[in-house]
Design brief:
globular, 12% helix, 13-stranded parallel β-sheet, mainly beta, 19-stranded parallel β-sheet, 32% strand, single chain
């Protein structure tokens, strides 16, 4: 006869196990390891011993795990006696007290919380290693930031300094417009985070409504040397970051003025592993600086805006940096004043300055930089590839230029789409490159020289490979190549160019043009598609559709292969 103590003990332990199993299935998909230590669900398996076995009312030294279904229970063998006579009456357990049950429940909660932490779901209530504990969250308003037009520089920096003193933190900037008349330093392992979860296209406060988080920058207006003056935001050290806000320069001139006021860099990274994301840079003179000091493994993602002179600059980067999802266009510079007859002005004085001086992305020495999904409209040069101005102290020569991989680049209304002054000998590789310009050669009185890809003269020491490009509008020429390096263009289209010049004009180096289409809507009769000059070392022109255009070659017969092209 089973005593009432046995019954109560069995019921309470069964209830505890049932509750434990229900909670476990909520946080852990699939099954865990069975008591034989074999994982039955490799996608969600946990090491044997992750949980305690409570079937015998005691923790086992091996800390094996509970099965989650009856199929994991070992069946009896044929030799085992299942008769009632052979059953051994278990010893009479002691009656569990409320304290016992409370201790059992606390332990179960701790192990469930540990599983939640392991799977990345739910609250983490179990003890956490201090080295991996999430960074605390601080707020600038706690340190006195008001966002009412008074200078909030000191309050912001106090919050950032508190983050530094605590080892690391996220410093929150709520929605609002904050005046910063000085500059800010974001310390290592610290993020300055606004309320914008994506790049806003509006800023400030409109009719009493905050357009997300906006910082107003004032310091350094008219400085003589903007590049060497302290930036507005300095990401000082590894793992420093800024995210989720707009930055505007209220004192910058308007679109009716012919030249902007110089300011220092808006954001500068000064060490490896800095991050800049979800930002709207309304009208900085200089945008993002990742080259004045080394900033390897940088991540710049989802940045919109209208930098006036230089959008992003990279140099001294010795480990792969990433720049992605960039959209720069001349919305700030566009003159809203109506033209004759009420027509809007297409190009105002400031916009004209940007289209003459502005550079979207400038890359000097950077090792295997990744550019992905970068768009600009109305800048002089879309992408500038050049030698570093930093000299190697042992040789007193430049530390070099860039190599890298670029995809989904779109530079519209540019004078030069890709300007190659220098690259690393390994070269730069492009895929899905879109270059466009309205052109000016159609107006005989105009003097212009709009080029899709340019490597001009003996001073150019670059090499590039382009696969899948579209050059449309009215460029003066699609490609001008005069350097000793190599250029390969394949699977690309060239819509229109000055019929008095060659679309692809090569005077030096090594060139390959394969599988390209010249002219899309009308024949190019009398035009030159590809011109190979006598200074070209080797040339391959194969499998192209010229639609009436021709190939001219002054290279020797042994150094040029021109075949299988459709005239």
């Amino acid at each position: 006869k089973i005593s009432w103590q046995h019954t109560v003990s069995a019921v309470t332990r069964t209830m505890a196990r049932a509750w434990y199993t229900i909670l476990l299935t909520l946080v852990t998909p699939g099954t865990l390891a069975s008591r034989d230590g074999v994982h039955h669900d490799t996608a969600n398996a946990r090491p044997a011993g992750w949980l305690s076995d409570r079937r015998h009312g005691a923790r086992l030294g091996a800390r094996q795990t509970l099965p989650l279904s009856p199929t994991h229970v070992r069946p009896r063998t044929a030799t085992e006696d299942t008769s009632a006579a052979s059953a051994v009456q278990p010893p009479l357990p002691s009656m569990p007290t409320l304290a016992d049950l409370a201790a059992e429940i606390r332990e179960l909660r701790g192990e469930v919380a540990a599983l939640q932490s392991f799977n990345g779901v739910g609250p983490v209530t179990a003890p956490v290693n201090p080295a991996t504990r999430p960074a605390p969250v601080l707020g600038v308003t706690t340190y006195g930031a008001l966002g009412d037009g008074t200078d909030d520089t000191i309050a912001f920096q106090k919050a950032l300094d508190a983050a530094r003193d605590g080892g690391s933190a996220v410093v929150i900037v709520p929605a609002g417009t904050y005046t910063i008349r000085g500059h800010l330093t974001v310390w290592p392992n610290t993020e300055l985070r606004g309320a914008n979860n994506y790049p806003y296209r509006t800023w400030g406060t409109t009719n009493g409504t905050n357009q997300g988080t906006t910082l107003q920058a004032f310091e350094g207006a008219g400085c003589a040397d903007p590049a060497s003056t302290a930036p507005f935001i300095q990401l000082q050290g590894p793992n420093a970051g800024i995210a989720g806000m707009s930055i505007v320069y209220p004192a910058q001139v308007g679109p009716e003025v012919a030249e902007p006021v110089p300011y220092p860099w808006c954001i500068r990274g000064t060490d490896d592993d800095v991050t800049i994301q979800n930002m709207f840079l309304v009208n900085p003179y200089l945008g993002i600086d990742l080259g004045t000091t080394p900033a390897g493994r940088h991540l710049v993602s989802d940045v919109y805006g209208n930098p006036l002179k230089t959008g992003i600059f990279v140099d001294q980067c010795y480990d792969v940096g990433r720049i992605r999802h960039i959209h720069f266009w001349n919305f700030w510079c566009s003159d809203p004043t109506p033209g004759p007859g009420g027509a809007p002005k297409v190009v105002g004085p400031l916009q004209q300055w940007v289209s003459t001086h502005g550079v979207t992305v400038s890359l000097a020495r950077t090792d295997w930089e990744v550019l992905e999904d970068v768009f600009s409209w109305g800048y002089s040069r879309g992408l500038l590839l050049s030698n570093s101005t930093v000299l190697d102290p042992t040789t007193n020569v430049t530390i070099g230029a860039c190599n890298g991989q670029m995809t989904d680049l779109q530079f519209d209304a540019v004078d030069v789409g890709v300007d190659v002054e220098a690259t690393d000998p390994f070269g730069v590789f492009f895929s899905n490159l879109n270059l466009a310009n309205a052109g000016c050669w159609q107006a005989p009185s105009s003097a212009c020289n709009q080029i899709g890809i340019r490597c001009a003269g003996a001073d150019c020491h670059g090499s590039i490979v382009v696969r899948g490009a579209s050059m449309w509008g009215a460029f003066e020429q699609a490609v001008v190549w005069g350097g000793p390096g190599f250029v390969t263009i394949s699977d690309s289209t060239f819509e229109e160019w000055n019929p008095k010049k060659a679309a692809v004009d090569c005077t030096a180096g090594r060139v390959a043009v394969r599988g390209c289409t010249f002219g899309l809507e009308k024949p190019n009769v009398g035009a030159v598609a590809v011109a190979i000059g006598p200074g070209v070392d080797r040339a391959i022109v194969i499998g192209n559709d010229f639609l009436g255009a021709t190939v001219t070659s002054n290279a020797s017969a042994t150094s040029a292969v021109i075949a299988s092209n459709l005239a």
